[in-house]
């Protein structure tokens, strides 16, 4: 029987019971993020995703804080290639991996908005961004392997590079990677360990899994597959849907208008797919809801229902090949505990 892996989310731009406010109800303080991580660990999750991007706190620093305030949970640290040299990123990750005694995972995020990337001084076009990501991953994986090597490419150059300190983990840190463009899928097939998608309908998720799996097989590689979703689980179906619509019941008009522009500015194929789903329908499959995707970018779909219904929806994704679930709920402390109590026990062989 396939063992599912469950991860939660660190709300490093703030938290609360409502989305779309001008100011979050709970600020992303050190104390609060540690509370989220500890609640996630106590609830039985294997890991916790720490996001990257303009609205968020620095993922490496948050990852370090979580490592030093937990015992078992694995920080899945998201970061963008191109802002630091791959050899520097190798040292940063190796240091954190040593501190974590092998608990570290990384999520490499190429980025899908030229406007947001430009705020950090990166004006690279979509195709070149992915080419740079591929070269970055080539260098960082060689570095993790403990080789002394030189590299001369389009974007990076090293001479007699060597990683000190070495990794705590053997060979490499597991790489999570997402993207729906052909270039993204090629990089995933070549370098990733887990290919991540957002919560599209099961049939579409299956299509992308089969596509990436075939690309990986041509390279002699085997990947695992994951999905990023929100969860709204309650004792009854009526309570669950009331809780879902409650999340988006206090949207600020200025925030709503700003998000319309964000959706239009992206050159991310995955974001465009997510936006189209949210615009086309309110609900899909058995228990999936697009309301969150109407007010925020990134992962925009939620599974809504009773514990049994949520389990059924997650197993539908498992049936097409998903084994890694990166989940979230609002607010994150309370919803992590709720999912841990009401849903995780339904999966008999959860890795913790």
Automatic annotation (TrEMBL):
GO molecular function: alkanesulfonate monooxygenase activity
Family matches, as SUPFAM superfamilies: Bacterial luciferase-like
Family matches, as CDD domains: Alkanesulfonate_monoxygenase (cd01094)
The entry's keywords: Flavoprotein, FMN, Monooxygenase, Oxidoreductase
Listed InterPro entries: Luciferase-like_dom, Luciferase-like_sf, SsuD_RutA_monooxygenase
GO biological process, one term: alkanesulfonate catabolic process
Domain Luciferase-like: 8-324
UniProt cross-references to PANTHER family, sorted A to Z: ALKANESULFONATE MONOOXYGENASE, ALKANESULFONATE MONOOXYGENASE-RELATED
Name under which the protein is recorded: Luciferase
Protein's organism: Caryophanon tenue
């Amino acid at each position: 029987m396939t063992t599912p892996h469950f991860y939660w989310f660190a709300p490093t731009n703030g938290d609360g019971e409502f989305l779309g406010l001008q100011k979050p109800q709970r600020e992303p303080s050190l104390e609060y993020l540690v509370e989220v991580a500890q609640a996630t660990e106590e609830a039985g999750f294997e890991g916790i995703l720490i996001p990257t991007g303009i609205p968020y706190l620095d993922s490496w620093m948050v990852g370090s804080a979580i490592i030093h305030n937990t015992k078992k949970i694995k920080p899945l640290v998201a970061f963008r290639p191109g802002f630091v040299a791959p050899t520097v990123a190798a040292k940063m990750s190796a240091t954190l991996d040593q501190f974590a005694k092998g608990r570290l995972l990384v999520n490499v995020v190429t980025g899908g908005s030229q406007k947001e990337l430009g705020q950090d001084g990166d004006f690279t076009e979509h195709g070149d961004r992915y080419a740079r990501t591929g070269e970055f991953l080539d260098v960082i994986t060689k570095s993790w392997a403990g080789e002394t090597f030189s590299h001369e490419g389009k974007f990076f150059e090293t001479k007699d590079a060597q990683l000190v300190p070495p990794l705590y983990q053997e060979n490499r840190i597991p790489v999570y990677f997402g993207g729906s463009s052909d270039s993204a899928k090629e990089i995933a097939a070549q370098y990733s360990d887990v290919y991540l998608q957002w919560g599209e309908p099961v049939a579409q998720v299956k299509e992308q899994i089969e596509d990436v799996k075939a690309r990986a097989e041509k390279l002699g590689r085997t990947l695992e597959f994951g999905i990023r979703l929100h969860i709204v689980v309650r004792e009854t179906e009526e309570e669950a849907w009331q809780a879902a619509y409650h999340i988006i019941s206090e949207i600020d008009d200025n925030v709503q208008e700003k998000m319309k522009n964000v959706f239009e500015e992206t050159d991310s194929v995955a974001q465009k797919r997510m936006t189209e789903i949210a615009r086309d329908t309110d609900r899909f499959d058995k228990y999936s809801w697009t309301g969150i995707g109407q007010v925020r970018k990134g992962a925009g779909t939620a599974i809504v229902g009773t514990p049994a219904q949520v389990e059924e929806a997650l197993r539908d994704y498992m049936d097409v090949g998903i084994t890694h679930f990166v989940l979230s709920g609002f607010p994150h402390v309370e919803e992590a505990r709720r999912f841990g109590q009401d849903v995780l026990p339904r999966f008999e062989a959860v890795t913790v």
